[in-house]
Records
---
Amino acid sequence: MSFSSKHTTLFGLLFLAVGLLFIADLSLGAVAIPIQAVGQALAGSSQNSSWDYIVLAYRLPKAITAILVGMGLSVSGLLMQTLFRNPLAGPYVLGLSSGSSLGVAVVVMGAAVVPSQLAGLLQSPYSIILASCLGSLAVLVAVLVVAQQLKDTMAILVVGLMFGSFSSALVAVLSYFSSAEALQKFTFWSLGSLGNLGWDSIAILGSCVALGLLLSVFTLKALNALLLGENYAKTIGIPFSQTKYILIIATAILAGSITAYVGPIAFIGLAVPHLAKLLFQTSQHQVLFVATLLLGAAVLLLCDILTQLPGTSIFLPINAITSIIGAPIVVWLLVKKQRL
Amino acid sequence: MDIPCIHTANLVVGYTQKNQQKIIASGLHLRAKKGQLIALVGQNGVGKSTLLRTLCQLQKPLQGEVQIQGKNAAQYKLAELAQQLSVVLTEKLPPSNLTVWELIALGRQPYTNWIGQLCEADIQAINSALDLTDLTEIQHQKQYTLSDGQLQKALIARALAQNTPLIVLDEPTTHLDLVHKLKLLKLLKNLCLHQGKCILFSTHDIEMALAICDELIVMTPNQVVQGSPEKLIESGVIANLFADADIQFDPENKKFNLTI
């Protein structure tokens, strides 16, 4: 794929920004570590073993998680906005995150309710990610089925909201019956955190995100056709149903796996594709895909830096930061660009 | 023997609702050849769009088949069909940042590779479509800044870039003023004359269609008739198109006279 020189320049700048934010994310935090020391720790030639430990065991996995989450959520938002022909679609708004929450709630809190043989099965590390993906898949399919009955694309947002409320209600019922311990576990999960992942979890998350992104790449051409609507897409040779299924699976894998590991994270999937469209001034999905990947990574690294107010030991949940930054951006976009 | 671009025999169009077939029109024998400009006329709600959608494989015929270049259209792969038939619909475009150029470039999708990369031939086809439709000057404008006439032309240019022998348009002249209607019809006529396209379009501008088209397909609730303007006027099909005493057709001047 060839990009125009303006786009190539922007890609270069964004790539640089991701690199700088990555280093900043490793360096800043409750303990400020000089950049040279970060470099030494990464190279394995560090003199300071506590810095070494902070960087390698805590901040590096967290920064990598931030990049994976930022890329995955942003791309899933891009896919959904085009699929639903709705500029305000995103994994959080359409209730996918709630669906994932329900899946996770069943695994975490349902263990108390089901027979013990089944409970053992629910404790396996893969069960959370599977339940989460299935949860988001279920909500996505439900929204899509309802969406086909609706002519008004804005009504889809309300449908997403309703499915979100419905899943939340089921979660509330589950939590009412679950043990205090399981409830606490679920509550911590639902606050969202980038920092709790070990390398093995990162490997699984990374594979899921890579799979989701790979599937998305194969839909880029069809996504461009979908900008004209479903019927036009068919008349220029795009097999619509097939494309739809790939998009659904890709989105469910991305949103589901990410939510399973870091909790429901709001607004990234909605705001980042818009920033990309605003910055690159194009509808070409080949360009937007790369732009969303880079911007998503950059934005989430930035949010992660802000969670640990530099120099203090105050730590804010990532979900709060993304909402504080994301919600005003979305409102601003709506006001500034009447036509999204 | 000339294989017709589009041919139907005993076609029945309509739709299935709750396992009940609703027949819109049946026993359709239609054919359109290379270089022909054909208008589909009929009252609102008589089923023009349903017929066009069936011809374009956007919905299934209830009976019979649509042949495109001598082959059953249902047997084409989507991408192959897209190289035979391009379509301009009435539906509004979803909001997007597409520029005129990008919009027209989408017409090249049946020819591009899996990621949609445009090659030299694609770019040439796009630029010549821009040229034919006089859109070169506004090629970098966003889709949502266009007037109705410009958008209609851009969509037609997209169909031209698709480079198909057959083009089907659903009410391309709606929302256009007299000047732009005439320009558009002349453009379609020229495409038939000079590029050998076969163009089928639905319209409510019957007087213009009578003046400019090679043939008309007249759709009424009871029958569907295809023929040259002269024949249709002579046989009184046009005069009976509107079953309304206040609208009288004047065969001499090929105009409708209204009693107000």
---
Amino acid sequence: MISTLPLDILVIEDTKLHQDSAKEQFQNKNLIDQLTTQKRPYLLDNADNYEQGKQKLLEMPKDSMYTIVLTDLMMPKGSRDTMSSTGMEYIFDQLPYGFPLALLAAKQNVPYIAIVTDINHHDHPMSACIDNLSSAYWSDQSAQSSLYKINNSIVGIFHAPFLENKAKDWMKVLNVLMHNSK
Amino acid sequence: MKIAIINTLKEESPIAKVYDMICKQTANLKTKIYQSESFNPTLIKQDNIDYILMYGATPQDDGLAKAIHKHSPIPFFYYLLPGYGEHEKRYHELHNVGIEVYFAIKTETMKGSEDLIDRLRKLGEQQ
């Protein structure tokens, strides 16, 4: 399915390798052109942590909201706002903010959303939790069954597919989201 | 050796400047003052920091110290100011997570300013 929407993408990711990979992959205009009929330049925006991602989702006007939000699962909070002494102790921890960010994006009516983790399911309990929502590893066959419909948004939850340099293959995720059967 | 001094007040704070001077002159340490709002543990490796010295008067400052220490393997010296009361409780909570705490005033149960200065001086001697 080719979208008629402009592909304005927000990538929320705290790992530089994956940030750079997103920039590199989404700068490939030919690949993007395969996914949309829109010919206007598209926006690629990024956020490094939960607070930045949240702010971008809340501040974007409804009529120019992102079409796609791709978020990492684990990341730091990125701000100390409203934290008590106890809350402050967690501000640098990697926590599963990908889930609330995906739900916030759905609340903001972003049409396509994906949570994409690079953590092996043996290495972190939150990554293992994804196995039953998706699959234990990326597989092209099971990727379609990892899609959910939440508040009219298509939401995918994935163990990341990887490029040869171990960076996330964002384009593969985007293709599954855009060619969904939901 | 390099020590990061984390300033929890505005940039002109005399406390950070005094400790900066003590670290340079008494302990012969290289120093860099960071504002607490912008400090995060990734800077420890990036800026080759060997020690951290922070002072704090609020529960939020205490929480920040614990958060930094949790993500850092280097010695952490905390100068506890009696801003928010319950300072003895605050002292022991910080001490219990492995932070070297020094209260503004030395008591029977808490190390004080002079102990911190002596600790810094010994760091200088070890170099």
---
Amino acid sequence: MALGRDHNDLLGDAIADTLDPTKRRWNKVVTFIRHLLGAMRSISSHWREQFDPDEARLESELARPAEGMAPLSPLDLASSDEPGADRIVGARRQIEDIEKAVADDKVVHDILGGMRAEMSPEDIREALGLSTVEYETAMKRFRRHVRPSADRGEK
Amino acid sequence: MPEKPRDYEAELRAIMDALADSVAEASDETILAEAREAGEDPGTVAARVRSLLTRAVTDHEQRPLRDAQKTYEERVEAIRSRPYVLPKTAEGRRELFRLVVQRKPKIGSALLTAQNREFRELTDEDITTSLEQLGALGVLDEFPEPSGNEP
């Protein structure tokens, strides 16, 4: 998430934009939740584009090694001229947290693999041979697994 | 050929998008049950979101007021920062005002009310304010600025 802004700001911006017809219209073909979801994705993508990687951060804010891994500092990555090194570190850290949370649930772990590959739910179900009910049940477990780690993270 | 480095950001986005989609697809009952299971009080969460939505709506409704205030402040600042220097003396300012009214009768008639048409009842403050406004509008640009020996 962009510096100084969180999911509440994202939702607030999505509502504010929706109230301004010059910015974003709610196409009533989709539910309001779906509309907000799309708006929040679009706004967060905009924030990402505006993000200034040179903005001052404390190294202690960023570096948090995963269990059993050598500490990885964004300052180590900065020398590679990679833009937004701290964001990459943050994303990697969150993915590791999620992987750890679902490690003992094979079906969910496989679903995670499909999500990372940007497969649709239908494609994932088909690839794993899951019925709709089995998939939805697994997704409930997935959400339960990641919810505590998500609360600790930036989401 | 070297292996392409993992795009952690894209992976995380894909995962979060998929999770968000799964929540959007889930029934209300499922979401409520999951919230309770996670130790959250759906009523408290709903109140928090309602407050957030209300704040966003209020902010939106107050935006014209904020915009108007900003415009007003910018105009005041523009008037203050206008480089035209008015004569230092009240007589000089009155003379400049008389010149403007004489050369720009349309502007003069807009500035002067019927009872003040002879200038006599205009205070120096009235004249100074009018000249400042005329200066901000650029009307005074065609009049010579006062020198050390001002009018």
---
Amino acid sequence: MLAKRLIACLDVRNGSVVKGINFEGLRNAGDPAELATRYNEEGIDELTVLDVTATIEGRRALLDTIRQVSKQIFIPLAVGGGIRSMDDARAVIDAGADKVSLNSAALADPSIITEVARVYGSQAVIVAIDAKRAGDRFEVFGRSGTTRVPREAVGWAAEAADRGAGEILLTSIDRDGTRSGFDCGLTSAVSRAVQIPVIASGGAGIPEHFVDVFSGGGAAAALAASIFHFSEHAVRDLKTYLSEHGVPMRLDW
Amino acid sequence: MKVALVDYGAGNLTSVIKALEAVGATIDLISESPALADARAIVIPGVGHFAATGSLRGAWTRDVRLAINRGVPLLGICLGLQWLFDGSAESPDTPGLGFIGGRCFRLEGPVKVPHVGWNSLDRTDRPSRILDGIPNGASAYFTHSYAAPLVTETVATTVHAQPFSAAVERDYVFGVQFHPEKSGATGLRMLTNFMRLAADRR
């Protein structure tokens, strides 16, 4: 049976891991390769490296980080943040990424989804959607959650899938950094609209939140950062808990 | 141990190279089929659309068959496994190698497609050298929408709405639908098995 995936997100800035609270107020949380190794030993199912810098030095550090991580760790590695062109996608994939996560670039020109999928396959293309509730709708924001765009999350996810995306990474801006739980309504609405897997993100605080988003939200995977960063054995404990609560998990590693 | 990695333009090779290097391989990236003539071990990777295997028609198909007849160990990964069969519904006009009978089909059912993530390998009764030391039920990482049918050569099955061949094996030809380069310790063990089989053939 296909297991639900736990994905640890490493927000990387100039070569070290940080975590934003509501996309602001970053604090240092360690060396990416070291953290990745620890997560792998703990049984994490996948890693996402999100580059939160846009400087030339930052990009160079990112590629070094990807090279280091992918040389030691043989689980899927996705990279996002600042991938604006085919050349950017190629650079991170050549460095060792298996998937690229497209956000603002796809909003600006959705044809990049198809372009990257044609060369590397749909399995290499994640479209990341940052969404915020507005009544019963979900508005889409670009540029790290700062700029509203005239799109609605469910429709945008369906279009991204049609254009060749292999997965949707769906972040609730309302919940991100609050530790108050995933937005299961948002996750469920998008998951029902597309046939491709949806990764839920934003709001993880306690193990019950993961049960909720996997069962009620229909998520194929859940991504979190700080819940994994600041405690020992967090991944292993969470997997054990979820398995005991009926969520199919990979338990051999 | 040198491994001939077939580069036919189907996607990303970096991860496969890194994992093979991690188990002691030296990579000989080949983009012309005559280079197979002195290969000691061949890996055919591949992600994406079955139509991409169209570039393996003609000379590649001939030279791969010759290598198989010489008993050179060959491993097909993902699309590389599917190509070992007669063909795929994904691209009906593109012939496969036809080393294993049967056609690949699209996964259908009340599940997410593509099938992305970790799923279990259920060993069949057929003994397997490529899965040596890998326990029944071990997890491996998959990402695909089309899959190969269950055949005599199937040594592990996986279910995603429907059962399909997760690993096939006949003589010195092996194929895996999952990605050993992304399947943690299980994947590295499988690649180590392949390297060992190749080394023993020399």
